[in-house]
Structures are given as C-alpha cells and as structure tokens.
Amino acid sequence: MKYKNELDKSSKKFYCPKCSKKRMVRFINLDGDYLPAEYGRCDRVLKCGYFNKPNGGDDISNMHVIYPPKPKPPTSFIKREIFEASMRGYERNNLYQYLIKHYDENLVKYVFLKYNVGTSKAWGGSTVFWQMDGSGKLRSGKVMKYNADSGKRVKKPRPLITWAHSLLNLNQFNLKQVLFGEHLLSDLNNENVVCLVESEKTTLVCAIEFPQFNWIATGSFQLFRPKSLQVLKESSIIVFPDTDAHDAWVKKAAEISTDLKIEIDVSDFLKKKSVKSNSKKGLDLADILVRNNDIKAQLETEFNTILKTKIMRHPILGKNIESFDKDMVIDLSSFKKLLCFSKIG
Ligand SMILES: [Zn+2]
C-alpha cells in the first residue's frame, strides 16, 4: 500500500509539545488527514526546534485507512453578464474621474476597456479590476475605492478593498488569481518585452503614457512568484518595483528567473528617485508619472538603457527594438471594437 506523509502545506498551526506556542505544523497523510498530534515541526526553528518525523520505530501506517487523494476543488469563475454590466457607470467611477482630469477621456476609456476595468456600487464609485485569464474566463475582480481628486486609494478609516465574488456572496468560491492584464498576453508587441508593476492603477497610467510597451500587474507582491509568472515564460520582463519593497523584488526576481529560466531586469528608477527626493513613504510609478513630462523623459532614458543591455545580450532583438523610443499611436480601430462590445459611448 502506498503511504506518504508530509507536512501540512496550509497555514494552520497547532500547539507545540515542546514550547507550547501555537506554531507547530503537523504531518498529514495522502488523504489529507492529520497524523497524531506529536508528529510535526515547530516553526520556531531557532528558538524551539521541535521536529518529530513519522518514521523509525513508530508504525503509524495502520492508524489510518488510506483513500485516494481528494480532488482539488475546481477554479471558480464569474459570469460574463456580471462583468459586462460593470463595464459602464464611469461617471461615478472615482479612478476614472481622476484620470480624465489629466488625460483625454477617449484614451482613459480605451485603457479601461482594454484592461477590463469596470465600476462597482461598493462604497459608491469603486473601481473593479477584473482578472481575465488567457482563455477569456473571469477569475474575479478586485474592487477598490479611490479618491477622485488625488487618485490615491481610500485607506482610512480602513482600506476599502474587496472582491467581486465576495460582493456577490458566492459561497465556496475558489479564487485562482491571474495577472492583471493576462488576457492581453496572446497579443504582445515589441518582441514580447513585458513591463511588470505591482499595482493595477500603475498599469493603466503606464499604458496611457507608454502604449508601445506591454504593461501587466501582479496585483500584489505575493503574486510575484513562479507559478503566476509561468504565463510570461516566452517574454523578457522589466520589473518596476515600488520603492518600499525594492530589495524584496530584486531577490524574488532572481529566484523566479532561475526557476523559470526567463530574463528579468529590475529597474531601480524609482529607488533612485526616492533617495533623491528623500521620500520616506514608498513611491509608486503612477503617482509621479501622471502628467509629468520630466519623469516621462527620464523613464524613456531608463527604458533605452535597459533595452540596450537586452540587445547586447541578444543581438537578434536589435532590429525590432530600434523603434522602441518612437511614440506609438494607439490603434483606434481596436478601440471602436471595444466600444461596440461594451455599448458605452
Ligand atoms: Zn516549539
């Protein structure tokens, strides 16, 4: 009979028999059942060090009946009608209202439709960043409220953030997140160079300012991981981390790069900027870029430096990359297609 025990991969912790802190991870069998309470590892590795493996003299294989492993719950999706119904109401969408103060409204509408950004009634005028996978299915939408004047997230008295499936009261919803903008990956331009940022809002601002690049967001640092970036395996990535977590991103980028064998360049543009400005709070690319031609010009230089390094590594890219510094005009025929679909006008 096949028997396999392993440490429970969930975040559940139990009381440690040695140090009595609730920090012990227990062993589970193939069926997902816990082995007796003494088998486990305390995660206070240095201060406690308790680790009792189920092997040696203890014959525990007869304590549990073995069943085939439980199937993993299937990924849940949101109905297309719900998504489509959210793709309007921009007159009360605070982030949209902020952006049209700084950019041509057609351009703002274009990126909202391209990136599947809708409006939610939550807290009056929130923004929904839908996560659509490569096959066009909707995993869920992240709902956040912004201040229409500053364009910043409302975080007081508490951060106004939730998920579409929570607002819809969908029980036992199994959310499997994808990258924000993942649905656009089948149609990359510029030799598959993908610019990766953390926040969804940054993606929208950068897509307006630098439409010649492919902008994608992880949505959080936690999603900057090999599993989520698998879809970028064919791409060459440039990451723009927020300043407050720059070093963590650099470290993680090296791990992902080794794991997936992909090229990741991490830009320290923002880090240098925040040192210069002596800013204690983290800088976000979107906040300094909006309608700031100086920053835009400096970023263009940054792009060219990174791209030149890339070309040196892969001379074959050179002939296509020359056009990178040219301004690109947004293809309005695709914009019209989007407009037809959403019936916004
Ligand atoms: Zn312990």
In summary, what is this structure?
Residues 3-55 form the Zinc beta-ribbon finger putative domain. It comes from Brumimicrobium glaciale. With 345 residues, the chain is α/β, with parallel strands linked by helices.
Q: Which regions contain 5 or more consecutive residues with pLDDT less than 50?
A: 56-66, 322-345
- Strands, total number: 12
Question: Approximately how much helix is present in the residues?
Answer: 25-40%
Query: In sequence order, what are the helices and strands, one letter per element?
Result: EEEEHHHEEEEHEHEHEHEHHHHH
The ligands bound in this entry are: zinc ion
Q: Mean pLDDT across all residues, rounded?
A: 84
Number of helices: 12
Helix-and-strand structural type: alpha/beta
Largest sheet: 4 strands, antiparallel
User: How far is the N terminus from the C terminus?
Assistant: 65 Å
Strand neighbour order, sheet with most strands = 1-2-3-4
Count of individual domains: 3
Strand share of the residues?
15-25%
Shape field: globular
- What is the CA-atom radius of gyration, in angstroms? 24 Å
Protein name: Toprim domain-containing protein
Domain DUF6371: 93-242
Organism: Brumimicrobium glaciale
Domain Zinc beta-ribbon finger putative: 3-55
Search tags:
single chain, 345 residues, 3 domains, 4-stranded antiparallel β-sheet, 12 helices, 12 strands, globular, binds zinc ion, Zinc_ribbon_put, DUF6371, Toprim domain-containing protein
